[in-house]
Amino acid sequence: MSQNSTIHDLLVIGGGINGCGIAADAAGRGLDVLLCEMGDLASATSSASTKLIHGGLRYLEQYEFRLVREALAEREVLLRNAPHIITPMRFQLPHRPHLRPRWMIRAGLFLYDYLSQRVTLPGSRSLEFGADGPLLPEFKYGFEYSDAWVDDARLVVLVAMQAREHSAQIRVRTRCVEAVAEDGHWRVTLEDQRTGNREHVRSRVLVNASGPWVGELAASMLPQIPRHAVRLVKGCHIIVPKLHDKPEAFLLQNSDGRVVFVIPYEQDFSLIGTTEEDFHGDPSTAQIARWEIDYLVNIVNECFRTKITAADVVHHFAGVRPLLGSDEANASKVSRDYTLELAVEPAPVLTVYGGKITTYRCLAENALAKLQSLFPQMREAWTELAPLPGGEFTSQVALLSEFEKSWPWISRDLLQRWVGSYGMRTRQLLDGCLELSALGQDFGGGLYAREVDYLCDHEWAQSVDDILWRRTKLGLRFNTAQREALSAYLDARRT
Questions:
Q1: Contact 230, 335 (CB under 8 A)
Q2: What CATH topology corresponds to 87-149+231-333?
Q3: Which of 182, 212, 314, 468 would disulfide-bridge 283, Cβ 3.0–4.6 Å?
Q4: The pLDDT value given to residue 98
């Protein structure tokens, strides 16, 4: 077992969006930061979202006005700071009179527009659906409003890169197995999940940002620290061949009071979700149930002309949200707000409960505000005006045009995917490439060895799933033989 003599300022446990956000903010303020993640970055809840940057229109029904206002303000910040992975999207909401009266929806959208201050995105409007649209003919009226789409897993990776570029250490596949208070700081044992090797590190403050494991970690490793009850809620999504050719997403009201999104996804697919059910057990084992697939299929079939069955599902995923404990019977009505709890004895621990992808940056700023007294030398907040890596541009169209001139031998579709993933970092990916053969082995689906090497060298990718499902979404286009070829290439890289 090795011993590191350095005393870090912060040791962040958890490589989801909240942990990476806190690590980036702290590192940029001059703190010495180490982040450990037991799996891959964004390998749990942060890659299992509905992939939206939004204020949460339905949260208005729970009177969560502060949360909605904060989220809408952050929507504008993220649209500016990450224009490669976050794009505006219009949402259409077909009206079902027996579920919510028209005036209620119109009033909610008016309030949504007001809270957003309509800085860059257009406001809401009423709709009349035409006979040639994707919805069933009984849907004659509805509404349209603005939010944004995000590649959630890539957002986490970019925030981790931002942290690293401010000197934070990011360790993936590294589990925190023990934390012992010593002389007012923490002695922490980290275990490499690949080799089994253990190392002792020391830190002045622990940050428990372990997402759905936050309660388990607090109970097993930090039993002396006061903690809140955590309610785990499973959300599931399915992906099917695209239901329509419109660029808009749809927000469907269901008879049980819930809403389900149908979102254009990866050019050829539709993403449908989410369910919300209480979950008990290990979050890493969460899987979609057959009844949840049927639930989502039925909602779609009640609204769309194109009918689907469970057999049309090409991919599905499940994630577990850690929400503050609540007696509310309906999981969908439990608050999505977050709570930050700082305990200073026997050594400082900051625990993160809840949170949304959209508000991760605000959560991080508030976390550092709680730690200000412990680190009076900290510099001021800085992330609001800081583009995420690759986001140093304003127009995807203009950037794509520029890249087409620089690399005319690369297909437009491939360059477009790279611009939407890496933004300005596409230049780094292609540095020195003068012809197609320089991209190396073609694994299929537009994935070349050059990109694989970039993801392994710069974005902590190690496995097939890291690359095909979190760094890209090319798993939707890969067959078994292609996966095996990619696996063999990764094995060869490690030898």
A1: no
A2: D-Amino Acid Oxidase; Chain A, domain 2 (3.30.9)
A3: 212
A4: 78
Q: Which residues of the chain have pLDDT under 70?
A: 1-4, 223-227, 325-336
Q: Which helix (H) or strand (E) holds 179?
A: strand 174-182
CATH topology for the 396-494 domain: Helicase, Ruva Protein; domain 3 (1.10.8)
Q: What is the pLDDT of residue 320?
A: 96
Q: HEC profile for 296-359?
A: HHHHHHHHECCCCCHHHCCEEEEEEEEEECCCCCCHHHCCCCEEEEEECCCCCEEEEEECCHHH
Could you tell me which residues come within 8 angstroms of residue 464 by beta carbon, excluding any fewer than 6 positions away?
483, 486, 487, 490
Look at the alpha carbons of 481, 486, 491, 495 in this order and tell me if their dihedral is positive or negative.
Answer: positive
- Other Cβ atoms within 10 Å of 457 Cβ, number: 11
* Phi, psi at 455, each rounded to 5°: -65, -35
Peptide bond into 346 cis (omega under 30): yes
- Helix, strand, coil percent content, the chain, rounded in steps of 5: 40, 25, 35
pLDDT at 325: 64
Cβ atoms 357, 155 nearer than 8 A:
yes
DSSP letter, residue 380 = P
DSSP code string of 408-467: TTS-HHHHHHHHHHHGGGHHHHTTT--SGGGG--EEETTEEHHHHHHHHHHS---SHHII
Q: Concatenated DSSP letters for 62-100?
A: GT-HHHHHHHHHHHHHHHHH-TTTEEEEEEEEE--TTTS
